[in-house]
Amino acid sequence: MYWIDFLNPSHNDLKWIGKIFHIHPLTIEDIQGAESREKCESFRNYYFVSIQTFNPDEDSGNYSTYVDNSLSIYNIVMKNCILSFHYLPIHHPEKVLSRYEQLKEYLIMTPDWINYALMDSIVDDFIPLEENLELEADSIDELVFILKESEQADMLRRIGNARKALSGLLRIMKPKADVVKGVVKRIDALKPDERHEIGLYLGDIQDHILTMVQSAAHFEKILSRAHSNYLAQISIEITQTSNEMNDVVAKLTVIASVLVPMNIITGLWGMNVRVPGQDDPNLYWFFGIVIFMVVLFTLSVLYCVRAKII
């Protein structure tokens, strides 16, 4: 039994590999074209598994960059060997070998076990991402109601990034359940006494995938609710601000209406014509007009306050 891992194989490499191992041209075409659809296909002397993983961008704070860096791994599982293909460096083969070193006293390495271990390693890589998204969803759900207005500037961006990452996670994880189901059917078609243990392992992967998909869908609902609550809160704040501005404008309008009669009085006595008291040498008329205007303004304001106009 042997395992050959191919990194970035060329067109000529795939051509010779297909001839040596009697691989169907459709399988070679899928690998050569970097087929991104996840699937499990059975052929006469092997079964072909295409599954997506990702290279995590640990230096980036944007969760969506994780799922944006998705890439495919292609496994051709035969009776006595397994061939794996990928076009970028990945850490999964090293993890599988390390796992085998720990368990070699308790198991016999087979092509089916290597295929299972690769799939299990790929699924495990999504667990930290989902945990981070869970923390982000819970944080957003709690903060959306308590953040001050000055601290809400990036909330919409955080919600958008988290929802984009969850959407990508669901897009990558959902097909994996069908892939595992296809591998299980392939193994069940063989003799149960030969493949029963691998079938149990694959069933465990399928349970993990379904749990992660359900959790991601739940987090998406939390973020959707938080998004709606955030927009509703923004709408309420805008309405409150608009009402406050309308109230201020109404008060200014009332005050301006009170001042209009005073402008008429000052305008009449400020015209370049003869007015009452013009020939009076004392300032009785002047102070009388000023006192009258002050009293009129005061009475008008008191009336507006009592009438709750201002």
Outline of this structure?
Pfam families: CorA. The chain is of the alpha+beta class and 310 residues long. It has 8 helices and 5 strands; from the N terminus they run βααββαββααααα.
| CATH fold description of the largest domain | Beta Polymerase, domain 2
What is the name of the CATH class of the largest domain? Alpha Beta
Structural class: alpha+beta
In DSSP terms (H or I, runs of 4 or more residues), the helix count works out at 8
Please name the fourth-level CATH homologous superfamily of the largest domain: CorA soluble domain-like
The low-confidence runs, each spanning 5 or more residues with pLDDT under 50, are none
The CATH architecture of the largest domain: 2-Layer Sandwich
Number of E-type strands: 5
Compute the average pLDDT.
Answer: 84
Strand percent estimate: 5-15%
Task: Name the overall outline.
Answer: rod-shaped
Report helical residue fraction. Answer: 55-70%
Radius of gyration: 38 Å
Could you spell the SSE succession in H and E letters?
A: EHHEEHEEHHHHH
What can you see in these coordinates?
The longest helix is centred in the last third of the chain and has 78 residues, at 192-269. Helix 4 packs across helix 5, helix 5 packs antiparallel against helix 6 and helix 5 packs parallel to helix 7 (192-269). A 5-stranded mixed sheet has the order 1-5-4-3-2. By secondary structure, the chain is α+β, with helices and mostly antiparallel strands. It is built from 8 helices and 5 strands; from the N terminus they run E-H-H-E-E-H-E-E-H-H-H-H-H. It has helices spanning 11-21, 25-32, 64-68, 92-103, 111-143, 155-188, 192-269, 284-306; strands spanning 2-7, 39-42, 47-54, 70-77, 81-86. It folds into 2 domains: 2-239, CorA soluble domain-like (Beta Polymerase, domain 2); 248-307.
